[in-house]
Structures are given as structure tokens and as C-alpha cells.
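Lab meeting notes turned into a lecture example. A postdoc, R.K., suggested we walk through two folding results consecutively so the class can see how the record format repeats. The first protein's sequence and C-alpha cells come next.
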Amino acid sequence: SFKNQFKVIKMNMRLQRYSMAEELLTALEHQYPNNEAIQLERAKLYRRQNKFTKAIKVYSQLVKQYPNNLDYTYGLGTAYMAKRDFSTAIDHLLLVYEKDSTHFNASYRLAQAFQELRIADSTYVFVEKGKQFRPDHKNLNRIYIKQLHRDKAYKKAITVLKQQDELYPNEFFNQKMLAVCYYNLSDYQKAKRHFSKALDLDPDDHKSYTYLGHIDLKEGSYKQAYVNYFKALKTNRIPRGKEYYGLGMTSIALDNFIDAQMFLERAYDENRRDPLVVFELAKILDHNSMGGKVAYRYFKEYVQLYPQYNPQNTDYANNRIMEIKEAYFLRGEILD
């Protein structure tokens, strides 16, 4: 019977036997063409297989056939989200919201989509609408926390995080974000405590080690900074520019200028668009080569690409460019 065959299909879906499920769906569809339940199950199957274009096609057919069923419009919106077409997803999810403003998942997904598009005002609007119905929803509050962090509202983020930590204790996200917020408020003792808790929950989180290295460097604990930066390198693949930069700055603090150059060169290789790396690499090359051509090239790169990033650094770089250029001119060589 249809019911028994459909149960077998759903069992195969649960067991992730997607090829078998698709074969059975196709066979059942021949017996019951244009069946609503079969179409919906096929859309779900395509979603699970990451075949989002096919899922969108099926959901679109369902929406056309059953325009009053908001589940299908919602499914179409989330299929576009899975494809990372957030603008189109928003169009469909707004249709759901306009017809049913109490549809929690529509508000939640709209908040998520607007955040992906970096539209802060709309993100906050749909976070608040969702919180009217499920104020303690974990993932909705994480969207809220991320947006507060992005907007540098660290104290407000901490308030929400503490509430979430009471509801969902021992969650890595809460501990890590509490640590990052305290770090950005320069409350390094609390930051260290929460980074340590985050690492207890996920020992392979390289960013926590990197932040701990930054704190050690700021506090003058240079040996411990080395330890944490190297732990970060051990648990991270790429990019590793921040870790190498931290090791370079730690080496400078310890007057180990040869190692500093090596680490800063590696940081530059990892991320050539970091103005801090370009500037510090120019300075260490300038120090080690006593005003050589390579340092001159990096100083020029800095002032050409990042003249507004840090006016004080730009002034320093421009002065060194002129001094190095003059020194070579006196030797009979003109630098471009």
C-alpha cells in the first residue's frame, strides 16, 4: 500500500540511504503522479543531499500548486538560504511573515538571513519579533549576540550571554563569546577565565589560544605568549597570520630580532593585506638591514595601500622612505 511504501522511504531517509530513498520515491511517483506527500518528501531528500537547485524546483512547484500552504513557501525560502542566496530567501520568508506574523521560524530565518547580508537594523527587528514567542531560543539569541558583538555592544552582549549560560551551561559558544567580549573591554582576567573554560570544552579551538597569546603579550608574559601562539599554530591550519604576527611581536619584545623577522615574514606570506603586518615587517627589516632596499619597499607598500589606517605609522613610514632614499642617493644610487 501507499502508506507502507512511504514508511519504507522515510526509514531510508532516517538511515541516510538517500539513493535507495530516491529510487523508491521515483517508483512510488509512477503509481501516484503529482502526489503532494511524494513531492514534499522529494524536496526534503534533495535538501539532505545538498541538491539545493533541485529542492528549489520542487518547492516552487508545491508553492504554485498549494499557494495557501505556508510550509512550502517557508521551505522554498530555507532552500534558498541553504544555497546562500539570502536576498531571494528573504523575499519568500517575508511572504510567510506577512501572512502569519506569529510564524516563529520565519522570524528566526529572516534574522539569520539579514545578518548574513550585514543588515543590522532588520536583523534586530526580526530577532525581537522571534523573541516575543521564544525568548530563550538558543540559536535566535546567538544571532542576537553575534550582532551585538559586531556592533561593539559588548556589555549588552555579555548580559545576554550570561542569561544564555544559565539556561544552557557548559556551551562552548557562550564561554568563547564571553571571553571575546571581555577581551574587547580590556578585562583580561575575566577574558582569560572564559577562554580557559572554552578550551576545556573544545581543546582544538586555535582562536582561544591566539587570544590568550595576545593577552600574554599585552601583560608582558612573553614566554607564556610563545606557548599560546605555538599551541594556536598546532591546532590551526590556515590562515595563521595572526599567530605568526603575535610571535613576531613577542620576539621583538624579547629583543630577538632575527626570529621576529622570520615570524613577520611568515605572517606576511599568510596574509599580505594586513596593514599591521606590512608595517611591522618593514620596521624589523629596517632594523635588521639598517635601512636596506627591502625595508624601503615594504614602507612604500604600506603608505601606498594603507595611508589612512594609522596616521602615526604613515608619518613614520614616509620619514623612513625619505631617509633611506637619501642615504642611497648619497651612495650614488637612486631608488624608485
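The second example is placed directly after the first for contrast:
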Amino acid sequence: YTLLGGISQNYLLRNPRGQIIGIRPYSSAEIRPVFKSATKIGRETWIDYYMQSPLAGGPPLRMEPNDVLALSWLSVNPLNPELGVSPFAAAFLDIQADVELTKFPLELMKNGAFTTFLLNLGVGTEDPKIFPSNKLRQVKGEITEQITGGNKYSPLIVRGGAKGEVLTPNLGRTGLAELGERSEIRICASSRVPPVYAGISSGVAASTYDNVKLSRIGFVKDCVLALAGIHAKALSDKFQKEDWRNHIFGNGDNDFTIDLDLRNVMALRDEQQAEREIAVQEYNAGIRTMDETRRICPDLPDAEPGVGDQFKPVPGSSIAIPLNEI
């Protein structure tokens, strides 16, 4: 829903005691915010409540703001900040803009936006500069009738001496080339995908293995993990305000944080391996405790038989942990 519509409206299922027991995501077409009317304080569009309109039919259902958690895409909808902008919709808008730029010069020429013909009247007279106004209006009307409307492709025939000249429009002066330059980069920027990683024209020309690899890492960090991190923070802030005592899933408290599990993220494997090696080296040098090292390397074996996670090496001592065991 976040990718397709720009936002996911998540309804929090509660038990009779008001405790959260589940989350049900909905699209922005099913659940939409209803705003408060303007007050004396200002005209901010504070959300009053949400209204669910079942896609399968049925009467609309009112939902309280405390029961809906909105998780949006990274881009903001300037026309409706409470709703997001889908990366697909943003890319389509840029694609449509490039289509219009492609058709624009043709539309200019079809609609006569350029002066394409110059007719110099009075050629052959004793004084070419002198041409009576009444005759000018008469000849101008004849010319207009012959080259416009249904006669725009008919030959031009006028009375009296005249010299015709075809004017070629200079499209380079319109600046359209600069407007449409590197359109693929703008399209990728709107959807937050690096051109090299997307494999489109501008990226392919300059793509190497290193560039593709770095683009993949950048995409994962700056887009995927950034979005996941924002959503994890929103979930943490919401759940930390809830009551988890004597919950159906077990007795707990709200002293916790939802974080990302990056152990199986392929794009970050090389960085994680380097971080684990540094952590082991610092542990062997007595800089890190075993507990700190295990936060980075949770699958490490015990440093010594029978020694717990809170083990701190004596200064100057060294306990070797083979790197191939990381």
C-alpha cells in the first residue's frame, strides 16, 4: 500500500481491554482522514477521525485516530500532506512531462506558433516601400484566406508584384532540449532509485561492476532502510504509549524499541563482515567487552569455556577468536 498509494493506513485491532492484539493494513482508498474545521488558533488541518469505506461494499465506519497508524512513503504530497505520494505516481508524472516535451515542438508548428512565411508586397513597383493601406488589407485578406483554415495546404497566388521567403523556425532557441535533458535521471530521482541500479540508458553508459554495487548499497541504505527505519520509529513511538501489562501475549511493559534486523540484507553483507572483524579485533585488544562484541557478532562462540557474556578481558591479555567463525 505504501508503494502503490504513497501511504498505508494501519488499523490497530484491540481486545475488550483496549490492548493491541494485531495490525491490519488498509489502502488510502479504504481509510481516509477527516479533518477538523478551522478554529481560532489557526487553519491547520488536524485529523478529527478516520472513515473506512469498505471496498466490498457496506456502510462507512468511523475510526478513532488512536486506532489508525499511518505509514507513508518518503515523499510528501504537497496538496494533501496527510497522504503520501507513490513513487510510481511520481515517476509517471515525470514520464508524462517528458512525453509532453517531446510533442511540444510539433504542437507549436501545427498551431502556427512560428512565423514560417514572409511575403514582401510591392516588389516590381517604382517604390517598393509604398503600398496603399486599402490594397494591403485586400491582399492580406486574400493571402489569409488561401493559407489558413481548410486551405492551409493550397498554393499561394496573389496579384501584383510580391516576393516570398520561407522562414525556418529555430527550435534551438526554445530551450526545450535543456528541459528534456537527462530525463531518466529525473524519473529515477522521483522514485528514489539510482539510474545505474535501475539499468536505464544513462546508467548503462557509465555502469561498471563497482558502480552497480555502490548504487545497490546506496539504494538499500538511502531508500529501503530509510523507509523501514521511519516506520520502525513510528511503530515504537506508538507502542511505547500502550499498556502491555497482563497482555494476552504475556505480561510486559512499554520499555522497548522496534529496530531493524539487517543480518540477511545481501547489499550490506560486505560492510557487516568488515564491522564484525573490527569488533573481534577490538575485543581481542581489550577495547570491547564480550557483551558489546556479541551485539555485533551474536553468533560468536564463548571466549572461554564457562565464561559468560559479561566477561571483560584483563588488560594486556589476548583471547583469539578466529575470523572464520564470524
